[in-house]
Each structure stands twice: as structure tokens, then as C-alpha cells.
Amino acid sequence: MGTLKKMAAESAVAQVLDGMVVGLGTGSTAEFVLLALARRIREGLRITGVPTSERAAARARELGIPLTELTGPIDMAIDGADEVERAKLDLIKGRGGALLREKIVAQASSRFLVVVDETKLVDQLGVGPVPVEVVPFGWQATARRIGTKCERRDFVTDSGNYILDCAFGSIESPETLAAHLDQIAGIVEHGLFIGLATEVHVGTLKGVRRHLRQPAK
Questions:
Q1: Do 30 and 14 share a structural domain?
Q2: Whether the Cβ atoms of residue 93 and residue 53 lie closer than 8 Å to each other
Q3: pLDDT at position 214
Q4: Which sequence positions are flagged as catalytic?
Q5: Which of 131, 122, 114 is nearest to 210 (CA)?
Q6: Residue 216 covered by a domain
Q7: Dist. CA 109–CA 115, nearest whole Å
């Protein structure tokens, strides 16, 4: 599937224009985005990147991608996703552990391009767990309030928090679940990215398919 992700990443990166501030994702798929950006920079493209994790920042520096802090608007963010609901393009993200900064960057971006291979498309979110970032204090109590089986990952985020992988099963209403999680003290952020993806570039054996989010009615 690496070839399909690479195709999708290059399709998304082709939309980056000279002078843009670009949000840089985290994870295996984002690596293909960074490589494609680095190649275009060597060819003369001038951009500045905003990384979503310390790992992404370190890798970008290795590849010669100029970086800046998030202080203003971002023209475009490009990142992967764990699941993409094919109708509305809602997402589950964060199984790489960077969901808080990824969501901050996505919300700050004028356009949010998602790069996946076709195995990530689902009819309904919840095929796998939803990552939930929680503060360490009282995390067990927070997990109980969530109301489903949650397993704490052996991982500490860049912000010093824990990640709980919560199995909700098929999620009929991501909006309702997001609202529930938003009300629980101790939760910093969750991996439901609702209404944020502008477009999704899907690598398939027949080429890259580009899905555009339909405007709200």
C-alpha cells in the first residue's frame, strides 16, 4: 500500500503553491508528503511548514523543509487519516499519537487535504478505535466517564498527555459522540475530525481519486 499512499501524497502536494504556509502531518503517510515537498523545494518551490509533532519537525529539518511556528493562518495542511467516511469525509485520526496538534493545524488551515490509500475508506467510522488524548491526572476516572472499553497506550504525547484507544464500534453519529467526549473533564482532544477535510486524495490501483467535501446545505 506504500505505492498507493505515495501516489496520493504526490497528488496533494501538487496543489501546493509558491509562498504557502503548509501544515505538515505526522505518521507513515505524512512521510510521503514530506518527501514530495522536499523534492519540489529542491526544484525551486518556496514554502514554510508548520509541523504537527516533534517527529515531523525533525524529519522536515532533515529534508530541508523550512519551518515556522503556528502564529497565523495556514494556507493548506496535508496529512493522513486512519479512517475516512466516504460520504461526508469525516475522519478518525490520531493513531500516530499527534491528534491534538493535528487538529489545531487542521482548524487553522484554509484547506485541509487528506492523503490515504483505498483501504482507509469506510461506510461508517468506528472500524477501529478512536484515539482520545487525556491528561495524566485521574486518567482512569476519565476513561470510565467515556463509557466504553479504553486501553491506555504506552506512549506520552508531545504535550505530556496519555492516549486512550477507545472502541466504540460502528459510530452512527460522530457528531453526537464528539459532543459527549467534549463534555468530559480530563479529555484534551479526541480523534474525530468532523467537517474538517476539504478534500481526500485516495490512492487506488487505477490511480488517484479526489473526493471533495460537499458544502453544508
A1: yes
A2: no
A3: 79
A4: 102
A5: 114
A6: no
A7: 16
